[in-house]
């Protein structure tokens, strides 16, 4: 694939992430902050998000797996994940966390288990898609090209 | 606003403190401030923010998260005001219902912005505090 085709693929792929609601405009904010002094800012922050989320999801699995669920422990974790997913523009993860928090408030254990599965699903999806996005960017840079700006046009 | 149009406030020599327990938010808030030329530091909770001031450090602007362990943003803001700290404090939180916002404002905030923080929200904070004049 030549450079122009790679750049077009990247643009189309990025657009699809917005069209599917996986990312929202906050991701564009992160891209705006990236510059020559910190050319890997987006991937660094996203990597932090992945590390943070892995830890939180593990803690949530443990907390919800207890015989008596302590929602005072569960809710702050979900709040944290909602916050960080919102900050990087992982819209579907954030939305899943909003639903999760509602069931935490109701102390509905069964529903919270379902919510945790949903959050995990959305998280693994955005993680997978962003890892692919960064690989595409790396290929372009390795070929001597520039990362094109995303034009969403909607 | 494009990247090229972002104001550079380095000449103003403003200083800021980011108070947030979430590493993702810390990273983003610090970068937002740095892009505008604002020197900044970060602490992980309200107690560390209070301790920083007790050790003699002072800042023009404090970006204060609400939910933090050990000492939350409401407690920290009250404590800082009791200490006589007159820095501009902007509450930055995902909690946005009116009751929670009111409680946070009454603790002594100068402004409140809902997360996630963006360039335009930060500029709005700076403009409100007269740190930035739009041209």
From TrEMBL, chain A:
<feature type="modified residue" description="Phosphohistidine">
    <location>
        <position position="79"/>
    </location>
</feature>
<dbReference type="InterPro" id="IPR008207">
    <property type="entry name" value="Sig_transdc_His_kin_Hpt_dom"/>
</dbReference>
<feature type="domain" description="HPt">
    <location>
        <begin position="38"/>
        <end position="137"/>
    </location>
</feature>
<dbReference type="Pfam" id="PF01627">
    <property type="entry name" value="Hpt"/>
</dbReference>
<dbReference type="InterPro" id="IPR045871">
    <property type="entry name" value="AHP1-5/YPD1"/>
</dbReference>
<comment type="function">
    <text>Functions as a two-component phosphorelay mediators between cytokinin sensor histidine kinases and response regulators (B-type ARRs). Plays an important role in propagating cytokinin signal transduction.</text>
</comment>
<keyword id="KW-0902">Two-component regulatory system</keyword>
<keyword id="KW-0597">Phosphoprotein</keyword>
<keyword id="KW-0932">Cytokinin signaling pathway</keyword>
<dbReference type="InterPro" id="IPR036641">
    <property type="entry name" value="HPT_dom_sf"/>
</dbReference>
<protein>
    <recommendedName>
        <fullName>Histidine-containing phosphotransfer protein</fullName>
    </recommendedName>
</protein>
TrEMBL record, chain B:
<dbReference type="InterPro" id="IPR011006">
    <property type="entry name" value="CheY-like_superfamily"/>
</dbReference>
<keyword id="KW-0597">Phosphoprotein</keyword>
<protein>
    <submittedName>
        <fullName>Two-component response regulator ARR22-like</fullName>
    </submittedName>
</protein>
<dbReference type="InterPro" id="IPR001789">
    <property type="entry name" value="Sig_transdc_resp-reg_receiver"/>
</dbReference>
<dbReference type="Pfam" id="PF00072">
    <property type="entry name" value="Response_reg"/>
</dbReference>
<feature type="modified residue" description="4-aspartylphosphate">
    <location>
        <position position="65"/>
    </location>
</feature>
<feature type="domain" description="Response regulatory">
    <location>
        <begin position="15"/>
        <end position="130"/>
    </location>
</feature>
<dbReference type="InterPro" id="IPR052048">
    <property type="entry name" value="ST_Response_Regulator"/>
</dbReference>
């Amino acid at each position: 694939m030549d450079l122009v085709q790679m750049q077009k693929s990247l643009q189309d792929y990025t657009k699809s992430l917005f069209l599917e609601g996986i990312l929202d405009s906050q991701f564009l904010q992160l891209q705006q902050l990236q510059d020559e002094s910190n050319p890997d800012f987006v991937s660094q922050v996203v990597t932090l998000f992945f590390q943070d989320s892995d830890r939180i999801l593990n803690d949530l699995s443990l907390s919800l797996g207890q015989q008596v669920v302590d929602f005072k422990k569960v809710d702050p974790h979900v709040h944290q994940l909602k916050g960080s997913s919102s900050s990087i523009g992982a819209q579907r993860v954030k939305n899943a966390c909003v639903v999760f928090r509602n069931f935490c408030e109701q102390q509905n254990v069964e529903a919270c288990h379902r919510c945790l599965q949903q959050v995990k699903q959305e998280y693994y999806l955005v993680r997978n898609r962003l890892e692919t996005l960064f690989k595409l960017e790396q290929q372009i840079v390795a070929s001597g090209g520039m990362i094109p700006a995303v034009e969403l046009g909607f | 606003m494009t990247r090229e149009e972002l104001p550079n406030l380095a000449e103003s020599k403003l200083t800021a403190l980011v108070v947030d327990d979430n590493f993702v938010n810390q990273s983003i808030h610090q970068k937002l401030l740095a892009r505008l030329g604002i020197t900044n530091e970060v602490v992980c909770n309200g107690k560390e923010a209070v301790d920083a001031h007790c050790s003699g450090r002072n800042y023009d602007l404090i970006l204060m998260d609400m939910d933090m362990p050990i000492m939350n943003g409401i407690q920290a803001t009250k404590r800082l005001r009791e200490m006589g700290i007159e820095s501009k404090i902007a509450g930055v939180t995902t909690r946005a219902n009116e009751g929670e916002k009111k409680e946070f404002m009454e603790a002594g905030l100068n402004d409140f912005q809902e997360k996630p923080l963006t360039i335009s929200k930060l500029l709005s904070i700076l403009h409100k505090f007269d740190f930035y004049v739009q041209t």
